[in-house]
Amino acid sequence: MAGRIEHYGMIGDMRTAALVCKDGSIDWLCFPRFDSGACFASLLGTPENGRWLIAPKSEAKIRRRYRPGTLILETTFTSKTGQVTLVDFMPIEEPHSTVVRLLIGRQGTVRLHTDLVIRFDYGISVPWVSRRDETTLTAVAGPSMLVIRTPVPLKGKDMRTQGEFTVRKGETVPFVMTYVPSHLPLPLPLDVEVALAATEKFWKEWSGRSSFDGKWHKPVQRSLITLKALSYRPTGGILAAATTSLPEQIGGPRNWDYRYCWLRDATFTLLAFLNAGYLEEATAWQNWLVRSIAGSPNQIQTMYGVAGERRLDEWEIDWLPGYENSSPVRVGNAAALQLQLDIYGELADTMAQASKGGLPAVPRRAEIREVYLSHLEKIWRNPDEGIWEIRGAPQHFTHSKVMTWVAFDRASRSRHMDAKERAHCEKVADQIHAHVCLHGVDPEKKCFVQSYGSEGMDAALLLLPIVGFLPATDVRIRNTVREIENRLMPDGLVLRYESQSGVDGLPAGEGAFLACSFWLVENYILLGRLKDAQRLYERLLKLCNDVGLLAEEYDPRAKRMLGNFPQAFSHVALVNAGLNLLHALVPAKTGRTVKRRRRRPVVRTA
């Protein structure tokens, strides 16, 4: 059985990523891209669906860490006879994606074993495994080939490749696995010491470029490294997560493929990189965004593939039982074709924040703005599936309408439009603002609601003061925060919405959505409730696993993570809330402005 979600660490080369369990098993890995078919899929099934275990033969205590400032994962096993460290990493500069696993003897002698089960095509295709020489094996199935090199004697048994070996103090035993298209020749052997040094140098230099050096540096840095690792290096696209179908409710159907790039993540991610001083990454993300949306405005999608692909057809894998029998297991995401009006606001806000942050102008910026605003003016009154991508009937979601206001509001403030165009955009923005305040507010409770005419509460409403729709001091915003605290925080963390209402067309029940809890931190900051903000932020930091990673959701009662992992949205929210909280706390504690290397965070409000 797969480990708990929080038991995993991630390694990657910004083309793909592997999840490594605390027990030394790689249970998820797709080649050659993040969204390719998995060759290790036991995370969603059993070891027979593919995994690579390296672990002591006897019981051992386990301690893990990332090497500081890097994506190099170290798992130290301490047994009665000795201590050994498993070092897992993926080199960055190699022409083909490679997983390197090093066993380094620390104390005494440790007896270990390895169990390699390769199953291409999401755990179903058994490859031909052939020995090329004393240290080299190949596994071939159709277009895919894995090349495994190690001095450890390996033998085949029951469609698995196994071996036993001993590591003594001072010894290093390497395993190297490289993906190559099966029609190509075998790659040259890798110098593992050189690769390790180069990989460590890359990550330390990258993480060292951050302009953030204040309190909470460690979790913020880990989150930024995670976001970098979830970026697709050839194009600059950033995935929502490295996995598909990890459940938002154990045993339920809320299992989605998150190995794609969402437009709504654009502004949040852009701000995280800008505020931390990573202009190159922010520029690459912006450029990916503009390339992906190129075309007719009525064909804009909520998400795209890592290279901007539009066909993300959703289908189900019937041979995988799912994580802890949470089915179905899905590949692709039908939400790509939903109408989600908020993405137009995110697109406009991304361009506005990019301009404020000093990024170079994207090609055809004026034309992009003109055609998308013209299209949005025609459709903003329509119901949509909203930020939470419901599978039920479309609604007039308040957050969606607010984000259409953002699109016109940002345009009305643009220096790149003439006075007549700005005046028109301001007029439309005012119309939308009045429309939302009339239809999106509960007349009795004087708070915003999930959708027009409903009494439902929605954590997406926490974004209203963050995007500048109304100040946090407005009584309707204060009342909304109060209602969210009363109705969406049964265990002190924020749920997305009241799933028992049936609005999403799915069975009720899911964990607390971590990004929403970070949004509440930002609301507390805007409300001047700094003690509440710090208290909640530090509680959220404690939910990170032992190597600093977060999933999409958390179950406070079962005390476990839920949803796809690691989740970019959670880590982006951690970064932005942390930077803004630190900025708010420093003057409050010192009574003066403290000169630091970090810049003042870019605020989303216009």
Number of strands: 22
Class of secondary structure makeup: alpha+beta
Our count of domains comes out at 2
Query: Strand-residue fraction?
Result: 15-25%
**CATH class term of the largest domain:** Mainly Alpha
What best-fitting shape do the alpha-carbon axes yield? Answer: globular
Outline the structure in words.
This protein has about 600 residues and is α+β, with helices and mostly antiparallel strands. The chain has two domains: about 5-185, putative glycoside hydrolase family protein from bacillus halodurans (Beta-galactosidase, Chain A, domain 5, Distorted Sandwich); about 210-590, Glycosyltransferase (Alpha/alpha barrel). The protein is built from 14 helices and 22 strands. The protein has helices spanning about 120-125, 190-205, 215-230, 265-275, 280-295, 340-355, 365-380, 400-410, 420-440, 465, 475-485, 515-525, 530-540, 570-590; strands at about 10, 15-20, 25-30, 40, 50-55, 60-65, 75-80, 80-90, 100-115, 130-135, 135-140, 145-150, 155, 160-170, 170-180, 260, 305, 315, 330, 510-515, 555, 560. It has a 15-stranded antiparallel sheet that branches. A three-stranded antiparallel sheet has the order 20-21-22. The protein has a two-stranded antiparallel ribbon with strand order 16-17. A hairpin with a 4-residue loop joins strand 21 (about 555) and strand 22. Helix 4 (about 265-275) runs parallel beside helix 6 (about 340-355) and helix 6 packs parallel to helix 8 (about 400-410). The termini are far apart.
